[in-house]
Structure formats: C-alpha cells, structure tokens
Amino acid sequence: MKHYTKGTFNLTESVGFYLNKARNLVLMEMDAALKDLDITAQQMGILLSLSHGTATTPFELSKLLVIDTGLMTRILDKLEHKGLLTRSRSVDDRRVVNLELTAKGHSVADQIPEIAPEVLNARLKNFSKSEFNELLRLLDKFSAA
Predict the structure, then answer these.
(1) CA 100 → CA 47, 86, 94, 118, distances in Å?
(2) CATH number for the domain including 91?
(3) Which helix (H) or strand (E) holds 109?
(4) Most buried of 5, 47, 64, 112 (most Cβ within 10 A)?
(5) Do residues 100 and 88 lie in contact, with contact meaning Cβ atoms separated by under 8 Å?
(6) What is the domain count for the chain?
(7) Alpha helix ranges (H) inside 56-100
C-alpha cells in the first residue's frame, strides 16, 4: 500500500520528518542530561553496548547502532582519548579490532541507567502503558522493513 504520492506528500507531515524530529529532540535532551558524564547520547550507546557485551568490535557497533564506519571511528577516537575504552588487535585475525571499556569507562556506563530513563520518561509522560507498547511495536515494525 502506498501511503504517499507526489500530490499528497508534505515534508512536515511525513513519517520521516516526525521520526527525525523525535530523534533530534531525544538526542538533544539526552546530551544535556549526560553532560556531567562528559559523553553524548551517541557515545552512551557505544558504552552501554560494550558494557553489556552486545558488541565488542567497531563493525558490530556500527551495525547495531546504525552508524557508518567513518563516524564510528571518530566517536571511538573521542572515547579512547577520554580514557573510556581501549582498542586492541585480535590475536586470531589482525584485521579485527577489539574494544574494551576501561575502569573509567565502566564507571561512566554504570551511571547511565540513573540518567537515561529519566530523559525518556519525561518525553513519554503523556503516553499510557498501551500507547507506549503500541509505539514500540510500530517502531519495531517500521525498523524491520
């Protein structure tokens, strides 16, 4: 089913516009909330992924977080410069770079769950439980396409 046509498409009423606006609002609010930890929302995703073992290489992180490899390298450079992670070559395959949080990186990652939920809950305060579940379901369906 086509939901847009050349004649009915309006940028500010499109799904892409609303998704981008919502993303930008959440990133801006999350960046402000994480300022005291000296990290950004994008850096938060990397730290949490490494902390939980969800991803351990730049390639895995790029796929998981949908960040192109060039930007991923720049973000990892910043995190390494801040002393939050280290990079090392794989012993089995020298082409693979393994990432590991430092003690400081673990400390920062451990503080994120005290901050991030508050930002998201503030944005979702007017959603009922069923609306929240429906939003998650629809975003998952949209993202799977």
Answers:
(1) 9, 5, 16, 27
(2) 1.10.10.10
(3) helix 103-123
(4) 47
(5) yes
(6) 1
(7) 58-65, 69-81
Structural domain contains residue 134: no
pLDDT per residue, tens digit, the chain (145 aa), is 899 999 999 999 999 999 999 999 999 999 999 999 999 999 999 999 999 999 999 999 999 999 999 999 999 999 999 999 999 998 888 888 999 999 999 999 999 999 999 999 999 999 999 999 999 999 999 999 6
The counts of H helices and E strands in the chain are: 6, 2
145 found inside a domain: no
Written as six digits, the tokens of 114 are: 């005290």
Q: Is residue 123 part of a domain?
A: no
CA distance 72 to 43: 10
DSSP element (H, E) containing 101: strand 97-101
- 130-to-14, 19, 85 alpha-carbon distances in Å: 24, 20, 39
What value, to the nearest 5°, has the Cα angle with vertex 37 and ends 33 and 41?
A: 55
Domain around 91: 11-112
